[in-house]
Design a protein that fits this description.
- By secondary structure, this protein is mainly beta.
- The protein has one helix spanning 105-108; strands spanning 4-7, 10-13, 18-24, 32-39, 46-51, 57-59, 67-72, 77-82, 91-99, 117-118, 122-127.
- Helices cover 3% and strands 48% of the residues.
- Strand 5 and strand 6 form a beta hairpin.
- The protein is globular and about 45 Å long.
Length: 128
């Protein structure tokens, strides 16, 4: 089990940037598929981006070209760089982890419910 803690959320103007961080208390991210998810008020949780154990990344179409997911295995920290933020990005953002024994479909093909460990979330609010 991995304990995850998000930080870096806040309120910004449209077009601004934020960098979210997700710190793991015990284990390195090397053996995990890591993902960022978000949930807006009254809506279902959706995937934003994920990074596999080999460093490969995938993104939701809505954030491609604007968001970048990365990880620092030495620091056990996951990041989400968010640029050119839009009001539609307003949501609670969560990081999550699932054990990944093999790179590939088990990460990018994973469903939201396949992720075992979740952080408490950090709020991102984008004003127009």
């Amino acid at each position: 089990q991995v304990q995850l803690v998000e930080s870096g959320g806040g309120s910004v103007q449209a077009g601004g940037s934020l960098r979210l961080s997700c710190a793991a208390s015990k284990y390195t991210y090397s053996n995990y598929c890591m993902g960022w998810f978000r949930q807006a008020a009254g809506k279902e949780r959706e995937g934003v981006a994920r990074i596999d154990r080999d460093g490969s990344t995938t993104y939701a179409d809505s954030v491609k070209g604007r968001f970048t997911i990365s990880k620092d295995n030495a620091k056990n920290t996951l990041y989400l760089q968010m640029n050119n933020l839009k009001p539609e990005d307003t949501a609670m953002y969560y990081c999550a982890a699932r054990v990944s024994l093999l790179s590939g479909v088990y990460c990018y093909g994973a469903r939201v419910t396949d992720f075992h460990d979740w952080g408490q979330g950090t709020q991102v609010t984008v004003s127009s």
